Amino acid sequence: xxDQPSPSSQSFLTALRTLRQSRRFHDRAIxxxxxxxxxxxxxxxxxxxxxxxxxxxxxxxxxxxxxxAGYGAFTGFLDGVAASIVITLDHDGRSQAxxxxxxxxxxxxxxxxxxxxxxxxxFSSTEARQRVRDLLGIPxxxxxxxxxxxxxxxxxxxxxxxxxxxxxxxxxxSWGHYQA
Length: 180
Ligand SMILES: Cc1cc2nc3c(=O)[nH]c(=O)nc-3n(C[C@H](O)[C@H](O)[C@H](O)COP(=O)(O)O)c2cc1C
Known about the structure:
Blueprint: H1 7-18, H2 32-43, E1 54-59, H3 62-68, E2 83-89, H4 94-113, E3 117-122, H5 126-136, E4 143-151, H6 169-172
Antiparallel strand pairs: 1-2, 2-4, 3-4
Helix pairs in contact: 2-4
Bound molecules: flavin mononucleotide.
Flavin mononucleotide (FMN) binds near residues 23, 77 and 119.
Organism: Georgenia alba
Protein name: Nitroreductase family protein
Keywords: Flavoprotein, FMN, Oxidoreductase
């Protein structure tokens, strides 16, 4: 007899498969206890050699998030989030970039479990990152590459993705050896 996946593991897999970026939110604030829950999950993210290169700045002030919205080509949706978590890293290398991706995804998944939508916002230029530092008092030797915006997704409004859907597995996976 083959083991069947349990209903709870099925719903976890479905949650992983259906997680999408949110960009439009209701005005409702996120309870502090939920933000703490998300941060507690984030804290346990694995990192290269367990260096935990991050320091997270939680921004609940809507005016400050509206200001952050102006600091990137695609960061506009931060004007309207209930909170954002700005991820700052202690170095600017490949392993920190990897670690940043992991902690972002954990934040997004924990938020989703609490019914909270989320989206990555990328502070893409050196100037933008300096403005983020200046606004939030982040030391010059830390790198604020991105933030995760959080809120209750307004499903009546378009989430305006640049593209949607995914490539089929056959296009992105080979078995045994690489086949284009
Ligand atoms: C490194 C990275 C940077 C991103 N930067 C932004 C951004 O600045 N603004 C934005 O709206 N979405 C940003 N996204 C989200 C992507 O646009 C999104 O994951 C992709 O379009 C797939 O969307 P979906 O998951 O909703 O299907 C970023 C994602 C990644 C991984």
